[in-house]
Amino acid sequence: MYQFTQQSLPACKPVLTPTSVISTLFLMGIFCIPIGLLSLHASLSVVEIVERYDSECVPHQFRLNKVAYIKDSLIPKNCSRYLKVPKYMKAPIYIYYQLDNYYQNHRRYVKSRSDKQLRYGLQYNDTRSCIPEESNDGLPIVPCGLISWSLFNDTHSFFRGTDELRINRKNIAWKSDRDHKFGKHVFPFNFQNGTLIGGAMLDPNVPLSDQEDLIVWMRTAALPSFRKLYGKIEEDLEANDVISIYLLNNYNTYSFGGRKKLVLSTASWLGGRNNFLGMAYIAIGSCLIVLALVFILLHVKNPRPYGDAMYVSWNWKGIPN
């Protein structure tokens, strides 16, 4: 016990010599830089088109009062946008909607849901966590809470020339969410029946496990700018193709200064476009190699004789206990 408390048990303690330190830094740098270059190449190979439409889809006479426009149900919300494909895009092409300045991570918003109700439906009656959207006219709301109430409800249709591009909206949610978090026998009930409508309606004849728009939306984002998967185009797009988008600009982001964007993106083996990972690996690898070169210069300029490892304290013979 004495040896353990005094940390004098046999142990392996590396001796950091200039050669070992410089070699380690070089090896780590040589390891990081190729990974960074591969990651960056994969990210840059992703073709991405981003189109902001919240401002352009407001009629000119309402540009100074966008909130009045979005709240007036008598004003048509139809809008057309046109995108030119910059490079060949290989299927599947992922369609995302992007919201900026939208704080899904707000504490009250995040807590306004009932995971047990999403799983078991009306069998679970305790929906106090869903306040203020827990009931309407004395009847429970399924699904309850602010998150489901504010479900994104803009719709998009895509055409290439006169041919409509079919959008596959199946399997856009995580399989684990579909199978384990949303009930297969739970159906929307009393949803969006109040005087204040938040977002999209839900089909009362389709179980929650099959309403993948809702499942995607219920997985809240950590940052105020986020993208959520809307669907997939399962045919290739050629360079210089002109894509016509016919959308309904229903969702109110004007009240809080939010922005709406439509994103079309391919994917690489690393996922979507994200240059940060590759640049981080390259930067770290470069710093390690620079440090190794600095240590080499210092070692050459001011060499120091190595100490004999036999004289370090843990190799001494006859140390008194």
Automatic annotation (TrEMBL):
Chief location bin: membrane
Top-level taxon in the UniProt lineage: Eukaryota
GO cellular component: endoplasmic reticulum; Golgi apparatus; plasma membrane
Subcellular location: Membrane
Protein's name according to its UniProt entry: ALA-interacting subunit
Coiled coil feature spans: none
Transmembrane segments: 20-40, 276-300
Family: Belongs to the CDC50/LEM3 family.
Record's keyword terms, sorted: Membrane, Transmembrane, Transmembrane helix
